[in-house]
Backbone:
């Protein structure tokens, strides 16, 4: 005789009423018996109107073991219960709910910039995943794989108003748009699910590279036909004129020449992941400065790839016109003799605390005859703020 049972299932919900945002959970009670076949969440989500299953039994016969294990959708999905993702923006944008994990925060229990960049990358890939266009590449569509093409980022800008804290639930929105004739723009917004406050926003530009020749490529028409229906004319950051980043030389104040890529730094495209570059940049900034200041913005201009055999040098230069010393004018500071404390990167001159709010960065490959640029960067900093912002 079959035994009867009931099981409550909760789903997170966000809705608006009279201009206010409310967050809660929808409770669904499932009644069944021990002989009832219980469907997975993916099967439940796929049963909705407009959704499709991952693959039919006929299609499974033509899939590789890797494809079966990954369960890459062959058609557009509206809901992804495994990744807490859903399609928004009239069917072309993507929103994912994430929880800040313990390994994503730093000493102050706030998410690091590197963690935010990793979340940007992951949600972008999941967006392509749900579109049904993902092939076996790192975010590459079927048309890109047929033409031996991969995505490479050429520029990224991030603005951070508040850093999420450990255990906080976040909503990350991402969408794509056109960038010139052969590029694609991808934007992100990160907000607190509890308060609705936007914590960070980012925009990036991507171009295509031939995986075999490692040269930039024009966008084939079949790829344009794949991705253009997903384009949205909206920007997370309004930037009329892109900020120009000057090139540093060996006279930069802070230099780290002891950088060597590890095998663990390589991604699926067999080059150093762009998130690793940011870590190298920030580690060149003096520790004394990082104790009191937090990054509020970064602009990156990518120039070339970096492989596991390359020797990398990180250069870092503070903005002279933004350096103050407890009320002492910069002109006076220039006439003073800097002690070894500053030269060694300790960030102080006797009893005076040197506070810099802007840095220019350069990562380059050290060659026998010449150095080659990997990425230029600009970072903006402010005094460390409270980690718990609330709306008034």
Residues:
């Amino acid at each position: 005789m079959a035994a009867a049972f009931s099981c409550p299932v909760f789903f997170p919900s966000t809705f608006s009423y009279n201009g206010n945002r409310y967050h809660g959970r929808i409770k669904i009670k499932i009644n069944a018996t021990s002989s009832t076949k219980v469907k997975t969440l993916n099967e439940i989500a796929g049963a909705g109107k407009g959704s499709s299953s991952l693959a039919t039994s006929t299609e499974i016969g033509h899939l590789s073991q890797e494809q079966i294990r990954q369960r890459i959708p062959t058609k557009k999905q509206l809901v992804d219960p495994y990744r807490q993702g859903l399609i928004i923006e009239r069917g072309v944008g993507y929103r994912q709910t994430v929880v800040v994990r313990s390994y994503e925060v730093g000493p102050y229990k706030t998410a690091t910039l590197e963690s935010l960049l990793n979340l940007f990358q992951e949600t972008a890939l999941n967006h392509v995943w749900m579109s049904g266009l993902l092939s076996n590449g790192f975010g590459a569509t079927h048309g890109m794989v047929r033409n031996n093409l991969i995505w490479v980022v050429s520029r990224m800008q991030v603005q951070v108003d508040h850093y999420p804290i450990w255990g906080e639930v976040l909503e990350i929105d991402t969408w794509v748009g056109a960038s010139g004739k052969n590029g694609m723009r991808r934007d992100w917004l990160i907000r607190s699910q509890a308060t609705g406050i936007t914590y960070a926003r980012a925009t990036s530009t991507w171009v295509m590279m031939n995986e075999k020749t490692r040269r930039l490529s024009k966008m084939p028409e079949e790829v344009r036909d794949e991705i253009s229906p997903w384009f949205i004319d909206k920007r997370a950051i309004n930037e009329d004129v892109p900020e120009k980043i000057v090139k540093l030389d060996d006279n930069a104040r802070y230099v780290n020449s002891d950088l060597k890529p590890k095998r663990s730094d390589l991604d699926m495209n067999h080059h150093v992941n762009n998130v690793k570059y940011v870590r190298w940049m920030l580690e060149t900034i003096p520790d004394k400065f990082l104790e009191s200041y937090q990054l509020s913005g970064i602009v990156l201009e990518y120039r070339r790839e970096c492989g596991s055999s390359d020797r990398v040098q990180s250069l870092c230069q503070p903005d002279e016109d933004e350096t103050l010393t407890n009320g002492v004018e910069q002109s006076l500071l220039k006439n003073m003799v800097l002690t070894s404390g500053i030269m060694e990167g300790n960030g102080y001159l006797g009893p005076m605390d040197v506070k810099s709010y802007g840095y220019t960065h350069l990562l380059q490959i050290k060659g026998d005859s010449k150095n080659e640029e990997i990425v230029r960067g600009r970072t903006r900093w402010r005094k460390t703020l409270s980690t718990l912002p609330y709306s008034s």
The chain has a mean pLDDT of 80. The CA atoms of residues 177 and 234 lie 8 Å apart. Residues 113-131 form the longest helix (19 residues).
